[in-house]
Amino acid sequence: MTINLVNKTVSFLGVTAAIVGLSAFPANAEGTSQTLSIVGTDETTSAVDLQLEPNTQTIPQENPIVEQPEPTPLIAQEVVPGTATRSGPSYIGVGGNIGFGGGTTLSQGSFAVFSKVGLTENFSARPAAFFGDNTLFLIPVTVDFPVQAVTDTGEQQLSIAPYVGGGAAISTDRDSTVGFLLTGGVDVPISPEFTATAGVNVGFIDETEVGLLIGVGYNF
Fold it and tell me: Does pTM surpass 0.70?
C-alpha cells in the first residue's frame, strides 16, 4: 500500500511539472518574437521598430526643355535683269510725252522710247529717252506693286499695277544738265504680249520740269 501511494505521488508531481513547463513555453516564445537582439551590440529592436517607414523623400521634378524655334534667315533677292516683277513682265515700248511748261524736252511735247527692266521681284529699272529739240534721258529705279483688279464684270477685267521711284534726268542740251527725277504711274496689262503704261515724271534740272508719258510696251 505504501508503494502505491509513492507511485501516485510521483505521477502527480510529473504531471504537475509538465503542465508548468508547457505553460511557461508560450510566454518565452512571445517574448522572443517581441524582442530581437543584435549580435555584437547592446541594442535591441522590437518587431514594431522593424516596420518599414514610408519613403517620404521628394524626387525633384525636372522642368521640361522648351525648344526655341530657329530664326528664319533673311534671303536676299537675286538681281536678274529682265525678270518679271510683282507688277508683270518686263517690256519695251514707244509712246508720247506731254509737257507742262519748262525749259527741257521733259516739259515739252516729244516722242518717247521707254522700257521696264525687272531687277528683282519688287524692283525694276525704267529707262526712257525723249526726242524733241534736245534729247532727254530718264534713268529711274522703281518699286513695283502687285497687280490689282479695278473692275470685274465676269467677262472683262481691268487690272492696274502701280509703281513709284526716283533716279536721274539727263538733258543733252548745250549745258548737258543732270538733275534729280521723281516718277510714278501705273502699268495696265492688255494681253500676254502687251502692256499699256502711263506715268508722271518730275525732273529737277534747271527748274522743275513735269511731263506725262503714255505708251504701249511689248512684253519680253
Answer: no
